[in-house]
Amino acid sequence: MNTSDEGWIHLGRVFAVSLLLLLTPAMWSQVGVPKAPAAEAKPEPPKDTLGRNTPRGTVLGFLNAARKGNGEIAALYLNTPLRGPEAEELARQLAIVLNRRLPARLNELSDTPEGSIPDPLKPDEDLVGTIATSTGDLDIVVERVDRGKAGKVWLFSPKTLQAIPDVFPELNMPTVEKFLPDFLVKRRLANVPLFQWLAIFVGLPFLYLLTGLLDRGISRGIGAFQRNILRNVDVQAQRILPPPLRLLLLALVIGWLISRVGLPLLARQFWSTTALVIAIAACMWLLILANGWGERYLVRRRPDMSGSAAFLRLVRRVMDGLVLFAGLLFTLYHFGINPTAALTGLGVGGIAVALAAQKTLENLIAGISLIADQAVHVGDFLKVGDTLGTVEEVGLRSTRIRTMDRTLVCLPNGQISNMSLETLSVRDKFWFHPVLGLRYETTSLQMRTVTDGLHKLLAGHSSLDPTSVRVRFLRIGPSTLDVELFAYVFAHDWNKFLEIQENLLLRVMEIIEQAGAEIAFPSQTMYLAADSSDRLAGITPKLRGRRGGTQRHDEGNIPH
Description:
The chain is of the alpha+beta class. Helix content is 47%, strand content 14%. The chain is built from 16 helices and 14 strands. The strands form four sheets. A five-stranded antiparallel beta sheet has the order 9-8-7-6-10. α8 (243-260) runs antiparallel to α9 and α9 (265-301) runs antiparallel to α10 (308-334). The model is unreliable at 1-11, 21-41 and 541-560 (pLDDT under 50).
């Protein structure tokens, strides 16, 4: 096929893809696509000099020949017994019908010698499009014809050609070229009329500017209504049509103009493709803006949820990437590009990245689990392994803890998820559990007085859980009579608990003193034996005892 045959299609692809890349906020810099393995060599069918080996080549070649006024060449794309002027006239009528009525879907035409094969019962036929006529819908069909040594070529079917003379008189809409100066229609740049270049670089920006003026007018109208009718003097002008909606409006205007202005088929193909790509980019932009709005809304709604901002930011970025990827795949599919090889390459590359970043992914997944389970919050005082401190930040990869020495420890989330995590700041009660050691000289009456007094003290205290109070003479120890105190203290933090515990311990000492008992301290008795010289001298061995003065500290098992 001649390169000029695909001038419009090539221009449409280049412009549409470039426009998509400009309007999309972020795109991947490059995607590595592995080369497909070499298939077994198959004998290629003979090349047709007119490009009739594929349905798309036949349609584009026919339109190009008709546009140049070459009736003899255009007639070679018809499967008709007519010859000479009659065949050329039929070709001219077919070209006009296609240019005026055929839907602009040339990208969907098959570019393979076998065709698209939509109907297994008719493997040698391919549907180009459907045209609405006064007698019903007319299918424009090309069929594959065997020309012997020349090979198989695609030609317009006889059934389609028989209906063209009856459809041709129905065409009464004038084309836009008739209303433009000749130099804008006849002068071409890259095989494209000059007025089309003006429409691209002047018409599109002008239409987009008009959408901005419309947005400003609507905003001012709504603001005036709120100030004058609703008496809201503090209202500020807000943007009603953000840029993505303005792009969608621009795409709708282009589609409407295509249906109202008589343009050639290739020109309609270009502008319909442009409108579609603008709509795709606008939808992608809108979804990305919606993701950002949703993230900000959830963060404002749950500001106390530890790590929610980082997790929602990750979710937003993943969704933005999926939106961009889906838009790119849809665009490639529209242009007839098979993305299977690219997807295969991305799958292999993703496996390689996952294997290379196992630890990072482990920490990431563990961070998501910690945030979802709300196991750790900013401000918690916890103990992780040998680390004791206050949580300052919960990220997706690591958690930062400020220790008692005021150092900052950064622990990977994967390590935290595999360790015993003790959160001390979430205690609803504190354990008051001292064990008192009284002297052996304590009588049973004194012991009963002490235990009764301690029980009344704990049971009547407002900061203690009365259902947990327990005071018992626990055991007769090696050097003391042990009394156990057990109760849970209501306190909002550790300092408050220490204050309550201090008052309780002072009251405990008063009760013991009032009962006449004493708190024991460790004692030691030493026996001295006389040697043989003392016995001979008649010295009587003396028993000497010494009481130890070291006080025993038994604070109980109180967690800090």
